[in-house]
Fold these 3 entries.
Entry 1:
Amino acid sequence: MDLKTGLVGSGSTESRELDLVIAGGGPAALAAALYAARYDIDHIVLESYQPGGQAALTAVIENYPGIKTITGGDIVTAMKEQAESWGAVFEMASVLSAEPLKDGIQIKADSSTYMARNLIIATGAAPAKLGVPGEDKFYGRGVSYCATCDAPFFRDARVLVVGGGDSAVKEALHLSDFVSELVIVHRRDKFRAEPYLAHKLLSCGNCNVMWNTTLKEIKGDESVEGVILNTPEGEKEMKFDGIFMYVGRKPATEPFANLVELNDNGTVRTHNIVHTSRENVFAAGDVTDNDLRQIVTAVSDGARAASAVFDKLQ
Ligand code: NAP
């Protein structure tokens, strides 16, 4: 390696050697970046093309201690600016693969290849698909996974929300300010979402809940026109202009499948919160199997992971 430039190899394939690569751009990665910069660790953050991760797509955050209410976009922007003010280094890049080396990890991104002594996986999760007929066909033509992004397109429309967790209920509440009528279908008779959100939705004027109901099919010609639902009374056809899906998340762990142990659901298997099956690889935030998946726990994981790397480098 050329110690002056940090480059190894020749030709167009650039390869950099670093103490730490942080993969991801959400709250876990941003907290890890802040702590890594303050610990003066030689690092880079490989931020995906969706800066801020899923948090950036959340309409309102009301449970981050110390901040009464803030948009997801604003909180991740503030986190990134704070990390950069301490010297955190970001590069927009997708991680394609990560392979173990004798003394580190080789991380291939679409921009460069990195030889990292340590890696923090904080790549988060993407919305899960339901897998019903019409879901792919009408994606972007009535089917959406992001009310914060798409709600204004559904002003005075009739929309269906699928799911019963925090995301479904929270984003349904956001949508209810735009649409004329909103129906939320949940496969059970009780929301998984925190009670405060559930109560708020149940008292929302233009919202209706259909319990024990699942989405069977999305119908339409050029765009969504309606759905077939499986209800306790049998199949029911209803007209809607838009469908918002919130049926969980799929962890973004594919590039790390050869590096660390994953759980059956694809999350990174951790012990002591941020430690993985490989001693120089740490994981933080929604990509892990940790039970509480909140911004507050993601930033805590990020800080712990950077601190563990700092301890290892001493
Ligand atoms: P989630 O909590 O896993 O909820 C997914 C919902 O989709 C559940 O209600 C689930 O039903 C339903 N579901 C899953 N598969 C389904 C299927 N095949 N058909 C029909 N329904 C299906 O996911 P999330 O709401 O995206 O939240 C993920 C994590 O982020 C959670 O830990 C959550 O607390 C956190 N989060 C927090 C906030 C906040 O503001 N505090 C906001 C968003 C997310 P069941 O209930 O029957 O399993």
Note: Residues 1-12 have pLDDT under 50 and may be disordered.
Entry 2:
Amino acid sequence: MQLGLKSLFIITLLLPILIACKSDKKQFIIGVSQCSQDEWRNKMNIEMQHESLLHPEAKLIIKSVSDDTEKQIQDIEQFISDSVDLLIVTPNKAAPLTPVIEKAFKAGIPVVLVDRKILSDNYTAFVGADNYEIGQEVGNYIVSVLKEKGNVAEIEGLDGSTSALERHQGFFSVISKYPNINLVYREDAAWLKDVGETKMTQALSKNIQIDVVYAQNDRMAKGAYHAAQQIGLEDKIKFIGIDGLAEPDEGIDMVLSGKLEATFLYPTGGDKAVQAAMNILQNRPFEKNTILHTALIDKSNAKIIKLQTSEITSLQKKMDSMNKQIDNYLDKYALQRNILYLICSVVVLTVLLLVWIFVSYRAKNRLNRELSKRNAEINNQNEILQQQKSQLIHLSEKLEEATHVKLVFFTNISHEFRTPLTLIAGPLETLLSDSEITPEQKRLLSLMRRNVNILLNLIDQIIEFRRIENGKHSLKIGKHNLVEYFLDWNMSFAEVAHKKGVEFKYENDYSDYLMDVDLEKMERIYLNLLSNAIKYTPKGGYIHIYLNKEQKDNIPHMHLRVANQGKALTEEQIHNIFERFYKVDSHVAGAGIGLALTKAFVDMHGGTITTESKDNEVLFSVYIPFYNQTEAGINTNNTTVLRPSFIGQDYFSDQSMRHTEMSENKIKILVVDDNQDVRNYLHTILSSHYDIVEAEDGEVGFYKAINQPIDIVVSDVIMPKIDGIALCQKLKEDPTTCHIPVILLTASSQDEERIKGFESGADAYIAKPFNPNMLVIRVRKILENRQKLVTHFNQHLTLSDVEPNIEILVNPMDEKLITKFNTHIYENITNSNLNVEDIGRELGFSRAQLYRKLKAITNQSPNELIRNIRLRFSQELLKQQRTITEIAYESGFTSVSYYSKCYKDHFKETPSDFQNRYLRN
Ligand code: FRU
């Protein structure tokens, strides 16, 4: 449809052009070659043009030369090469023009000769008067005028032109018959007036008697007349011409004015020539020779002819103007016709356009309707998709939230589980370390301990997973030879496998496995994979482990493969296996967190873990880079307490670690914990060795530490009022308590972080659940170190320069206190009445506080310390040969005997014995 409209549209556009083309018939080009440019030729040209107006299918191209034969040949050649349809030629000279006219004729161009001829018959038609006959008529007229006697001068036309030759021949054929008529002068004047005048002048100058001048045309006659007139002979000679043009001052006027005796009409015949041409061109019959008639014009008829001619001329002019008007009308008609065509075209075009617009509009509407329909459908689908997406997002958020809540819940529960589990694990350890239990009891207790450890392990995993989620888990990278550890871990595992009747095979290549890893996490990765494998391997099945070194991404990797026989996993199971809380088999025990944690640890090491399953086998494939490249791989030498692994052994069950003897001066331990059960449990653990003072929070704890001689504090961290960290800080900042060692019991790794953050100055911290023996050892170790410090002091009477084997930090405040105390005693050494109260005041302590303080750090009372300083001072004096009495008083002793007793008690020899021994050496 659209194509049809387009074609119609184009046709409409071209319509006016097509119509215009249709009205134009084939144009005939007629080349006209004129030999001269004069009035006679001009008349002929006008006649031809008038005639051509009647033949609109023909077009005339007129080329005129001024009697120039060569030029005329060139013009004809040009017409030939322009392939005109017909040639009308008046040859200037016959001979030179014959070849070119023959050429045109032979080339198939019809040739119409006018007025003059060529020397050949190779032309199509001739139109013109019979010049021979005109010559004869002129001859006869002259014979009559001269009454057969007289002299005639002939002024001829162009030599070589047929008209000139024939006019002479006709003339001469007549006058030659009259012997008394003499042709006295004959000259060629080339059809031109001036030349005619010149020739006439020449003739007259020769004194030739001339009665009649025969000029072959009126122009030359006029020249001859003028020549005669010059010498006043114009009336004596009769002038006769040819042409008889009616235009002013031409032949007829000259007859009327008496200049010419007569002239002979020589018809131009331009109209006839065109008529002949059109007949030829339109293949109509035509005359080969169209001979035009001549007539004598003398005084008798000149006027009438002139009048008739004028009439014809004016008619001609009217016709011309009418023609012009017709042309105008035709032009207007053509213009109006074209405008009409154009309007028609525009109307048709507009109609077509309207039709096209209408059709397009309908098509567009139809398309729009379809599009809107589709859009509506798409929008509908989009909306549904959007709704589904929002639902999915909502669901996934809910799921994420639920998982998060689950994890937070588990984490909280896990923290809550720790204390009770500690209270189970601790007494269990105590019971197990009792040598008097029966083997059956030991077996049952071991079973309990194993299960407690499993629970603790699960709790640990949840807490660790939460830490990873919170981004708080960092790697503790160290260089470890993993193969050794794998073998070690295999030992505990192989036994479990054996018990379950599972074949356990482990193979590794002989590569060096010294790797940058977090050993604790590697243990988790390995044992979780093994634990997972054993869970899903049926009795009688196998677990195969392969370890080899491989290049992956051009980096050396450890490649661990753990394969176990078991039900093949589905695609979905493989896809979800590392998701937290995802369980392949809901009937198998476990929280679904072990593999998620394993993957998290592998990821932390910059490694990869994948699962494959086929033909009743499940394979876990782990790649860990040899050299750590993760940002998390910070080599932290922190003091995180390693918890025994869940497939662990019995730790610290050595009975010898127990204190069996109860000392007189029992060491006092302040136990601070808000949980009564924990306090009771700590009491159970420690009371066999030490005196226990209990406090339910930090505030009470601090109060008791200030007011009682406390040797060591064991405190929980999370407590109401003052927590463990603040309590520790307070104790360490108070001069009266700053010497008391503090052990903090941390319930979670979070506590460790906080303790580190606060730099509370704790001497140790132990993670819950703790092994009771470990706590006892820790307390004992700290007390031993304190004892070493006391020994150091007793030897040196100073807390400075403590030996490195004493792993205790001496509080600077204590060091300062001792220095001050010593200085005060030395400065007042001779004063036997030195008062402890005064010294205490001097140092900012009460008597009791000073006593407790000095007793704690030196194991001596203030008085004992003063006495020892005096004795040490006296010893220096003994080295100087002074008398014992002198020395005793100078050292602040009130009597020599008391001094001697004290000296002997302290140094295990008398002062004089020391002096004698010293001086002897
Ligand atoms: C015009 C003309 C006439 C004459 C004729 C002869 O060019 O000279 O005057 O009659 O030619 O061919």
Note: The pocket of beta-D-fructofuranose is lined by residues 36, 38, 40-41, 115-116, 157, 161, 163, 191, 217, 219, 242-243, 266 (CB under 6 Å).
Entry 3:
Amino acid sequence: MTSILLLSGPNLNLLGTREPAVYGTDTLDDHVARATKWAASYGFTLEHLQSNHEGVLIDAIHAARGHHDAIVMNAGAFTHTSWAIHDALAAFEGVIVEVHLSNPAAREPFRHTSVLAPVAHGSIAGFGRNSYLLGIDAVAQLLGRSPA
Ligand code: DQA
């Protein structure tokens, strides 16, 4: 059974109340519930972890090796800074899709660079609540799967 690890980085635990004009009013639980259902429509299982700590996210990426087929990751601000997460993802042999709720390219200059994009198969940004679902669609496409 194809298994996806959905990883959420710092401050995403505050979704729902954090800058709702930018990130919307859905909570992280809302996003995860929707993503879990969407993944199931492809016959995928989905596990989720959120952490505000870089090392916890790195440990989760290491643990995903040999256990998960794909990682869908919204690394929050670590997207723009974390070469350590970049290196951890580079050691993951499965599919990697970077996702963002907002469109960082249309925001402050410090958000314009993703240090994770070079090790992801692709990036999805700016589609709000649909970004996670499109990230799962991308996994399915990369694995050659269609809805069950
Ligand atoms: C984000 C964009 C990042 O720039 C920001 O630091 C976040 C959220 C997004 O989902 O739009 O925390 O990854």
Note: Helices lie at 20-23, 28-41, 54-64, 83-90, 130-142.
